[in-house]
Write a structure and sequence with these properties.
This protein is of the alpha/beta class. About 30% of the residues lie in helices and about 20% in strands. The chain is built from twelve helices and 15 strands. Strands 6, 7, 8, 9, 10, 11, 12, 13, 14 and 15 form a ten-stranded mixed beta sheet that branches. A five-stranded mixed beta sheet has the order 2-1-3-4-5, with helices on both faces. Helix 3 (about 90-95) links the parallel strand 3 and strand 4. The radius of gyration is 23 Å and the shape is globular. The protein starts with 5 loop residues before the first helix and ends with a strand.
C-alpha cells in the first residue's frame, strides 16, 4: 500500500471530521464522511451520512458537486456500499457521476460489502486507493465493526474519579466529584448512546435517572443488570419510564411477583442466563444487546459492574473524568473492582488517548488497545 500524500491526508481528515457529525443519528449504520475534489484541487462537494435510512455521505457530496464531479476525486471514510439496503448502492452513484479516482479510509467489514464496492469501482475503470489515515478511519467506525463482525455493541466504560483514583468516599458519598463541565459532557455522551447501563447496586444507592439533559439525537434505553429484580418501583428509573425505556436484565432467580410489578409499571424485564456466580452472564448480555442492534452502550457503573465488564474484556473504550481532588481511604471504592489483573503488563491501554481540560477537570478518553 503506497504512502498517502499530504493532500490526500488533509482531505481524508476533513472527511473524518464531517463523518463525526453523524454520531448518534445514523446507528446502527456507520458514520461516514465524503468530499469531492476537482482536478485543480478545489473542494466542490462535501457530505456525511446524516440520518439512518437517509442518503449516504457519497450521495450528499456528489449532489453538492453536481456536474463538477465528472473527472474528480472522491475521498470517503468507508468503502462505498454495493448493495440495496435502505438506499441504492453508493458504488453505482459514484460510477454514474464520472468520478475518476476514489480514496477510501477503510474497507467496509459488512459481509454484504467487504471489498465488493471496491471491486465494482475498479471494474468500472476507477482508480481506487486505500491509503489515507486507515487507523483513524477504522477508529471512526469501530462500533459498527463490533456490531457486524462480533454481533455485540461497543461498550464505553465511563467513570468520574478523584486524582487519587476514588469514585466515592469510604461512606459512599460521591456527589459531586467532578464539575458541571464534566457532567455536561456525560450528558452529551448519553445523548448519542443506544443504551446506558448500571448495576442494581448503583441503581438503588444513587437512584440515577440516566437520561441525557438536554436530549441528544438518541434516547438511550436505561439498562439495569439486576439478578433478582430488586429495582424499586419508586426509583427515578421506573418513575420516568415514559421519558425513556427501562430494561431490567435479570435471571431465573428473580421472584415472579417482582418481575410482574416492574412490567406493570412499563419496565421491560428480560431473563439472561446466569454465570457461575448466579448473576446475569455479561457475555450473554452483550449477545442480547447485539441482537437488539444496539451499537453503542455506556457502562456507567458502579465499580463492581465496571470491574465485571473489565474482567470479561468487554470494555472497548474509556471515558475517565478526573477531578483535581483527593479523597483517600483504603475502603474508598475505585472505578474497576472485580478480580483485576495479576500483572501490570497484561493490561490494555488507551490507544492514542485524547486529553481535554474541562474547567479544571481532566477528561481522558479513547479506545482500548489489548495486548
Amino acid at each position: 500500500m503506497p504512502d498517502a500524500n499530504p493532500f490526500d491526508e488533509l482531505m481524508m481528515r476533513r472527511a473524518i471530521e464531517l463523518a463525526r457529525r453523524g454520531f448518534g443519528f445514523v446507528e446502527p449504520n456507520p458514520v461516514v464522511g465524503a468530499i469531492v475534489v476537482d482536478s485543480s484541487g478545489t473542494v466542490v462537494g462535501e457530505g456525511w451520512h446524516q440520518k439512518y435510512g437517509g442518503p449516504h455521505a457519497e450521495v450528499h457530496a456528489l449532489s453538492q458537486a453536481g456536474t463538477k464531479a465528472f473527472g474528480s476525486t472522491l475521498y470517503v471514510t468507508l468503502e462505498p456500499c454495493c448493495h440495496f439496503g435502505k438506499t441504492p448502492p453508493c458504488s453505482r452513484a459514484v460510477i454514474a457521476a464520472g468520478i475518476h479516482r476514489v480514496v477510501i479510509g477503510t474497507r467496509d467489514p459488512n459481509p454484504q460489502v467487504n471489498g465488493g464496492g471496491i471491486a465494482e469501482l475498479r471494474n468500472a475503470g476507477i482508480d481506487v486507493e486505500i491509503s489515507a489515515l486507515v487507523h483513524d478511519a477504522k477508529r471512526l467506525v469501530a462500533p459498527f465493526i463490533s456490531l457486524v463482525t462480533q454481533c455485540r455493541p461497543w461498550f464505553h466504560g465511563k467513570w468520574a474519579m478523584s486524582l487519587d483514583g476514588k469514585i466515592a468516599t469510604r461512606s459512599g458519598h460521591s456527589k459531586w466529584i467532578t464539575n458541571e463541565a464534566s457532567r455536561a459532557v456525560v450528558h452529551q455522551l448519553r445523548g448519542r448512546m443506544d443504551g446506558v447501563l448500571v448495576g442494581i447496586g448503583t441503581a438503588i444507592t444513587d437512584d440515577p435517572a440516566l437520561t441525557a439533559r438536554p436530549r441528544g439525537p438518541r434516547i438511550a434505553t436505561r439498562i439495569v443488570v439486576d439478578t433478582v429484580a430488586r429495582l424499586p418501583a419508586e426509583s427515578q428509573l421506573v418513575q420516568s419510564v415514559s421519558d425513556a425505556p427501562v430494561l431490567v436484565l435479570t435471571t431465573t432467580a428473580a421472584p415472579a411477583e417482582r418481575c410482574i410489578r416492574l412490567r406493570d409499571a412499563g419496565v421491560e424485564v428480560f431473563t439472561i442466563p446466569s454465570d457461575s456466580n448466579g448473576k446475569p452472564d455479561l457475555n450473554e448480555v452483550s449477545v442480547e444487546l447485539g441482537r437488539r442492534r444496539f451499537t453503542n452502550v455506556l457502562v456507567e457503573g458502579g465499580g463492581q459492574m465496571l470491574g465485571a465488564f473489565f474482567d470479561k474484556s468487554l470494555i472497548d473504550e474509556v471515558h475517565a473524568f478526573i477531578a483535581p481532588k483527593l479523597i483517600g481511604g483504603c475502603d474508598a471504592p475505585s472505578p474497576l473492582a472485580g478480580l483485576g489483573l495479576d500483572l501490570v503488563t497484561e493490561g490494555p491501554s488507551i490507544d492514542q488517548p485524547v486529553v481535554e481540560m474541562l474547567d479544571g477537570d481532566l477528561y481522558l478518553h479513547g479506545p482500548l488497545k489489548r495486548r
